[in-house]
Automatic annotation (TrEMBL), chains B, D:
The keyword Membrane is annotated on this UniProt entry: yes
ABC transmembrane type-1 domain sequence ranges: 59-261
Pfam families for the chain: BPD_transp_1
Topology in membrane: Multi-pass membrane protein
Similarity remark: Belongs to the binding-protein-dependent transport system permease family. CysTW subfamily.
Keyword Cell membrane in record: yes
Regions that span the bilayer: 18-39, 66-85, 97-116, 136-162, 183-205, 242-262
Function recorded in the entry: Part of the binding-protein-dependent transport system for molybdenum; probably responsible for the translocation of the substrate across the membrane.
One Gene Ontology CC term in the entry: plasma membrane
Keywords: Cell membrane, Membrane, Molybdenum, Transmembrane, Transmembrane helix, Transport
Matching CDD domains: TM_PBP2
Location of the protein in the cell: Cell membrane
Name of this chain's protein: Molybdenum transport system permease
Automatic annotation (TrEMBL), chains C, E:
Pfam families in alphabetical order: ABC_tran, TOBE
Coiled-coil portions: none
Keywords: ATP-binding, Cell membrane, Membrane, Molybdenum, Nucleotide-binding, Translocase, Transport
Highest taxon in the source lineage: Bacteria
Domain spans labelled ABC transporter: 3-230
Record GO biological process: molybdate ion transport
Protein name: Molybdenum ABC transporter ATP-binding protein
Origin species: Sinomonas humi
Gene3D superfamilies named among the record's database cross-references: 2.40.50.100, P-loop containing nucleotide triphosphate hydrolases
Mop domain mapped to chain residues: 289-354
Any one Gene Ontology molecular-function term assigned to this protein's record: ATP binding
Length: 240, 272, 355, 272, 355
């Protein structure tokens, strides 16, 4: 029965008129899950299924024929891959932005208060690797501040950075504002002025392969609409 | 050997005493992190999470797919192990090396390989697509991904057991008129039950914990392809401690399934 | 159901031609490492020969091109070790052959219980092989081989590990069973050959050195091994006159030609064979004279108690000769290792025939 | 049994013919995706990538840490397997269940558990911190993470082999006056060489492919903690096909290491 | 170096007290499953008793509290199966004991080669156990056990699988070696007991049923098993007068009291023992009269060829009695299974003594 399960969820959506498959970056898990419920409430009879994963994973899957209606990426590079592969219907649109913040353990053992403090000797700093969006943002911020960071680890994702700070093994980490917010009291954030020089944008697009193009577009609009923006804003995301 | 495969209760088991030192260290090395995890979990807060619909759906899916892929490993892996251990010598080393490859492949890459092969545009997938069969992003894809990563575990550990067991009983059975098929079912399989049990436990566990290949090849759709490890991964985006609590559920369930199957039935088959 | 095998395995120095006639039981004898078990493994299909062929009842079992797998040969093997299946209990072990042959569970169990009864092991039916003593396991293995009802039955030392009560009972059982079957039995005991075999084949170093009807071969052995098996002294030499043998180091040995044996022509290779009981021992100073007899100087090597008798091993320049004495006689002669003695054997007790 | 552990070239090996059907299917299931991967790789473009400094550094680190953790598995795992297979019966089932747990733990969660234990604020780590030892972000942490996930593979497969081999030779050796230690080195270990080889191959492979626990516990810094699988993951963010090419390097290197060690030395020890 | 063991294992119905004196060699005899190997496993420390104790040379090996592990006992075991270490070659197998005892590699190898020479297996030194024949493996196992130089040596059926040339040679070797050692040997052959053992212990059903100096016990067996082992006919009953025994079903049996045996008092349990060769067979119509003799009606069960003789098994109402005849006599009587005959044994050939 497995063959029809997912294929069916996409193909049957046209006939039932209510089912959507949204491919979204893993960092959007919390917000999009909430948005999904809201969307279903606003569109009775509709059902939103999410496939969360790394943005690059999702693009690979789409390129290999994954049945999906909407793609929300955590960065523009991956969305560009999707558009150049001709997967998107229309131009992708930015629905949220995010800026970096320094995350430190609540006790702030290394006494980090400015961006400069990150380069103090003995500070165990953890950042994202440059290959991932938060890493390239980190590089931009460091460049803007004219500093060379000496991290003890260049992590694969913000979640990994955050994990090291929460566990106390890192004295500081560079993550997004939303991540600090999402971590509750487990870390404290230290904002720095240069963060605005490296803004990360989140694009979203309905997909060509969608069997339910109108509902897909409605979802895109919903995310970019006021209700969507409120949820995203509450989580700490900036407006597009 | 098999005659006394299970050490007799009253018999002699001469373990050097010092062996308990590294053994205890090893057990502690495994145990302490688990305790460390347990210590971090605030159960009261997490019980709702653990019993949420999505968690239960993921757990169910995990158990079902892990059982299915263990069955697939059994069906494909036992013959592979037999051919490796006893088949014609020519090319055995190459065959073994091939079978080991998925073992070292980072799971995500394994998932990509499956996607390149069974995806809609893949080597095999494009032909399947023609007849209307799509594998990727279905529950079947989860089973395939799990089987792909788990199969070598069964094959390698069973091959070791088969070689240790040797083929003398099979030869005697043949002289009693038993066809190779009869020998296979009535002699070979029962004799390697401990090795087979090990292999099945390994592949069940590997399937249950499988994450990377599943995510890449099957995606992460609730109720269809989002197994518990994927749920844990997503949960970690939200709250790492909650993810740990969820993972513990996986661990407990696995321990129960494995403990019951391995401890009683399989191991008992020989010692009884 | 006749069986014929010719095969060679270079690695083991094995090169043998071997035959069993329909309904016949052949005993294969020979020293350790002679190739007896190898012969069985070849016949059963557990080993491949470098070259050769085997035919059972007109069917080719193997030759240069064909090779019938063991299960299709109709050849059952009782191996030198019991090798009971450790995961099956005793009755399931014995029922294995019938089951493999297609019998129903019920019939197979019935057959198994019958054979277990025959080997006096029915009481063990529900045990696991690990819970059996050595002799009990051997009995079960015998029952398992017999229950398979093959065209050709191969038994490798079936009476090893059996106690003095069980061995004769099983010998009688096999005597009964083998009378109707084509079988080969490997043994180290002359008694087994006497009781069970129509014909004896002696293997040595992978080759057949002697063969013939059991009684004839054991009464008039032509190889040192067969003579040892029959418990006889054995000398090899060349005839110089009828009933007279020149043995290097011992000079002329006097004996009698057995009327039923082949007369040895002068100058021919021949053997002299006599029983240990027919050898007397004297002090060198006290050798009697009289009727035609052989007298050899020898040095005592060893004395062995043998039930009511003492066996003396004495080294002559040519060979060690054994003599059986009463303990009283041995004591009177004050024998011990190193004693110089003269061995005397009446010519009438020494059989001479061509080798 | 061991006397004929290795099927003789001229001996009988009665495999049912139909067994080749599932065996072939199994081999194809493993093989075709690998071919699918190979087909995707544009070698000319990727040779510079594969021979880049960062790739080579990652490869070196991977091999070193995988060997180190395999050694750690050997030292800790062989005693654990022995105690499980032959030790006092009491509590064996619980011990086995415990040892199996890391097997089902999604690797990332395993990494978290290690972090919670050996991290600066962890159960054990806080004491290590007092004496100035910090494990996180060190190569040692990589080895620990790999050992944590690989250890059960060695233990489980070796335990199976030990049970299949039984303890009769050990008993005889003891009556010849050999102390348990002498027996361990001269009888037990040589007798289970095939099973040990399987176990080592499994844990080496698992270590080599290890990603999640390493990333979570040890971090990812070129030359220190970024093993090849981590490098592959990063590469994937940029170009999945390049990541596949890099993963193939891992596979080839692993096949060579394993093929040489397993095919010749270890398996040969018994058959020779 | 005296050894004493008392132990019980309920599960196997084993409950035995057993003793070996310093320098003594004891033969343990008994039917399959009697508990002989169990006794050895207890002494060697491979099995734990439910209760009991064992003391070797003043050291407690086990009792209710203490338990010395096998390697520290100074007890070497030749098990019923050769169990050569498959990963070591022959010479390494034999050198294992010396190496374990702390000898240098060179010395251990030297000792191993010496013992291999003794068992005539030096030519096999570099082979793997898998490349040996059954008898070759057994010889190597014997060499391995002897090379360990233990305080107490336990040999479980050492001559199983050996050929007729090797067995006597090894018997003589053991005779030489055991003369200086404290040892126990399990065997199914009276000859082994005669040649090697000072004393014999007969186990049956896990208990000692008879024990005594070898010659005495085998000449005057008091158990059916020992009589069978010595090849003697055996009847049990109660004495009615000196040399006279009432046997149920056979009436009075006439015999003679052996002067050296314990005289049986009237009404006491006693046994009558006589050799098969001393039993003659007559047709029922032709039974002769004369000197005091026993005559029993019987039905022939079976005829067995036994070398130059024929052994007749004949069932009396009480027991099966065996008689050895010449083939000529058997032919003249026209014997076959089912023939009604009368068995006659001269009173002078029947020994009667208290059980
Ligand atoms: N697997 C093997 N590889 C090589 N040589 C072997 C192998 N098995 C046996 N041999 C050798 O082949 C010869 C014949 O062995 P086989 O087992 O047939 O002797 P056997 O007559 O049965 O002796 P026994 O009376 O001791 O059982 C011996 O020299 C033996 O060492
Ligand atoms: N592992 C076991 N578990 C339970 N019972 C056993 C076990 N091994 C042997 N027995 C039983 O214990 C009794 C004594 O066995 P043991 O091996 O000591 O006999 P044995 O005198 O050596 O006989 P044999 O002459 O056949 O070797 C037998 O009845 C046997 O079936
Ligand atoms: Mg043999
Ligand atoms: Mg025994």
């Amino acid at each position: 029965g497995g063959t029809t399960a997912a294929g069916g969820s996409a193909s049957s959506s046209a006939s039932s008129g209510g089912s959507l498959t949204v491919f979204a970056a893993a960092s959007l898990t919390a917000t999009f899950t909430e948005l999904g419920h809201d969307f279903e409430a606003a569109h009775p009879g509709s059902k939103v299924n999410f496939n969360f994963g790394g943005s690059s994973d999702l693009v690979s899957q789409l390129q290999n024929g994954a049945p999906a209606d909407v793609f929300a990426s955590a960065d523009q590079a991956n969305m560009t891959k999707a558009t150049s592969a001709g997967l998107a219907a229309g131009t992708p649109q930015i629905f949220a932005t995010n800026v970096l913040e320094i995350a430190v353990p609540p006790s702030n053992p290394a006494g980090i208060h400015t961006f400069q403090d990150l380069t103090k000797p003995g500070v165990r700093l953890v950042v994202c690797a440059q290959q991932v969006p938060c890493g390239s943002a980190t590089q931009k911020a460091a460049k803007a501040a004219g500093l060379t960071l000496k991290p003890v680890s260049e992590e694969q994702s913000v979640t990994d950075v955050l994990g090291k700070v929460i566990s106390g093994d890192a004295d500081a980490g560079l993550v997004y504002v939303t991540d600090v917010k999402g971590a509750g009291g487990k870390v404290s954030g230290v904002t720095f002025p240069g963060s605005s020089s490296a803004v990360n944008s989140y694009p979203i697009a309905a997909l060509k392969a969608s069997k339910n193009a109108s509902l897909a577009q409605e979802f895109v609009d919903f995310v970019r609409g006021s209700q969507g923006q409120k949820v995203l804003g509450d989580a700490g995301f900036g407006a597009p | 050997m098999p005659a006394s495969a299970h050490p007799e209760r009253r018999g002699y088991s001469g373990l050097p005493r010092w062996i308990y030192i590294p053994a205890t260290l090893g057990v502690l090395f495994v145990l302490v992190p688990l305790v460390g995890m347990l210590a971090r979990v605030d159960w009261l807060n997490f019980i709702p999470l653990i019993t949420s619909d999505s968690s239960l759906a993921a757990l169910r899916l995990s158990l079902e797919t892990a059982l299915a892929s263990t069955a697939a490993c059994l069906v494909l892996g036992v013959p592979m192990a037999l051919v490796l251990a006893r088949g014609p010598v020519r090319g055995r080393r190459w065959l073994r090396a091939l079978v080991l490859l998925p073992l070292v492949l980072p799971p995500v890459v394994g998932g990509l390989a499956l996607l390149y092969t069974f995806g809609r545009l893949g080597l095999v997938g494009r032909w399947l697509d023609v007849v209307g069969v799509q594998l990727a992003f279905t529950t079947l894809a989860v089973v395939m991904a799990q089987t792909f990563v788990s199969l070598p575990f069964l094959v390698v550990s069973l091959e070791g057991a088969l070689r240790t067991a040797g083929g003398r009983y099979e030869a005697i059975a043949a002289t009693l008129g038993a066809t190779p098929t009869h020998v296979f079912w009535r002699v070979t399989l029962p004799l390697v039950v401990p090795g087979l049990a090990s292999g099945l436990v390994l592949s069940f566990a590997r399937s249950l914990g499988e994450f990377g290949a599943t995510l890449t090849f099957a995606g992460s759709l609730e109720g269809v392809t989002r197994t518990l490890p994927l749920e844990v991964y997503l949960q970690r985006e939200v709250d790492p401690d909650a993810a740990v609590a969820l993972a513990l559920v996986l661990v407990v369930v696995a321990a129960v399934v494995v403990g019951v199957a391995y401890g009683r039935r399989l191991a008992g088959a020989v010692s009884a | 159901m006749s069986f014929r095998l010719e095969a060679a395995i270079g690695e083991r120095g094995f090169d043998t031609a071997f035959e069993v006639h329909d309904g016949e039981t052949v005993a294969v004898l020979g020293p350790n490492g002679a190739g007896k078990s190898t012969l069985f493994a070849l016949a059963a299909g557990l080993l491949r020969a470098d070259s050769g062929r085997a035919v059972l009842d007109g069917r080719i079992l193997f030759d240069d091109r064909a090779w019938v797998p063991p299960h299709a040969r109709g050849v059952a093997l009782l191996a030198q070790e019991p090798l009971l299946f450790p995961h099956l209990n005793v009755v399931e072990n014995v029922a294995f052959g019938p089951r493999a042959g297609g019998a129903s569970r019920h019939d197979a169990r019935g057959a198994a219980e019958r054979w277990l009864g025959e080997v006096d092991a029915l009481a063990l039916a529900d045990r696991r092989p690990a819970q059996l003593s050595g002799g009990q396991a051997q009995r079960v293995a015998i029952a398992r081989a017999l229950a398979a009802v093959p065209q050709l039955l191969l038994l490798d030392e079936p009476f090893a590990a059996l106690d003095v009560a069980a061995a004769p009972a099983l010998r009688r059982l096999l005597r009964r069973v083998l009378a109707k079957r084509t079988a080969v039995i490997i043994t180290h005991e002359a008694l087994d050959a006497h009781m069970l075999a129509d014909r004896v084949v002696v293997l040595e170093g992978g080759r057949v050195v002697e063969e013939g009807p059991t009684a004839e071969l054991l009464e008039r052995p032509r190889s040192r091994f067969a003579a040892g098996l029959a418990g006889l002294n054995f000398l090899q030499g060349r005839t110089t006159a009828p009933g007279r043998l020149r043995v290097e180091g011992l000079g002329d040995v006097f004996g009698v030609e057995r009327p039923e044996a082949d007369a040895a022509l002068a100058g021919e290779d021949a053997v002299a064979v006599f029983r240990p009981a027919d050898v007397s021992i004297y002090r060198p100073s006290e050798v009697p004279h009289g009727s035609p007899r052989n007298a050899w100087r020898a040095i005592v090597e060893e004395l062995e108690p043998r039930g009511p008798q003492v066996r003396v091993h004495a080294a002559t320049p040519r060979a060690t000769i054994v003599a059986d004495l009463t303990p009283a006689a041995a004591a009177e002669l004050d024998l011990g290792p190193g004693s110089a003695v003269v061995l005397v054997a009446k010519a009438a007790a020494v059989a001479v025939y061509s080798a």
